[in-house]
């Protein structure tokens, strides 16, 4: 009986715990793609791109070959990272300036 009561309390405890909302998202820069290449975030969330590849990469807002000036990490070497806060709703396309021709691009949808 005591064991059942303890398990019941544990389950109650879990039931009261709301899943934490994560306002920090990470996108891996790989050779030669973003992972995930499509990401949904809430307005106000932060996305951090981390270069997990061996090659240099950038995260640059805009369509391939046409930066729109919202953000540009500059060249990130392996291990480098860049952070951006999405303060307005919208679909934000971005690409790698070095590998755009290899279709290295992604999109963040902020809602
Ligand atoms: Cu790249």
Brief rundown of the structure:
With 111 residues, the chain is mainly beta.
Structure class: mainly beta
- Cα-atom Rg, whole angstroms? 19 Å
Write out the strand line-up for the largest beta sheet, numbering strands in chain order. Answer: 3-9-8-5-6
| N-end to C-end Cα span | 48 Å
Helix count, DSSP H or I runs of 4 or more residues: 1
Bound molecules: copper (II) ion
Description:
- The chain has 111 residues and is mainly beta.
- It has a single domain, classed as Immunoglobulin-like (Sandwich), CATH 2.60.40.
- The strands form two sheets. The protein has a five-stranded mixed sheet, with no helix packed on it. The protein has a four-stranded mixed sheet with strand order 2-1-4-7, with no helix packed on it.
- β5 and β6 form a beta hairpin.
- The longest helix has 15 residues.
- The N and C termini lie far apart (48 Å).
């Amino acid at each position: 009986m005591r064991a059942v009561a303890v398990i019941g309390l544990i389950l109650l405890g879990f039931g009261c715990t709301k899943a934490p909302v994560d306002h920090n998202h990470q996108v891996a820069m790989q050779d030669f793609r973003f992972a995930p290449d499509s990401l949904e975030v809430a307005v106000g969330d932060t996305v951090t791109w981390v270069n997990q590849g061996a090659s240099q990469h950038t995260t640059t807002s805009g369509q391939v070959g046409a930066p729109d000036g919202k953000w540009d990490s500059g060249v990130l070497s392996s291990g480098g990272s860049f952070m951006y806060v999405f303060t307005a709703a919208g679909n934000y396309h971005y690409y790698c300036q070095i590998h755009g021709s290899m279709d290295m691009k992604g999109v963040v949808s902020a809602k």
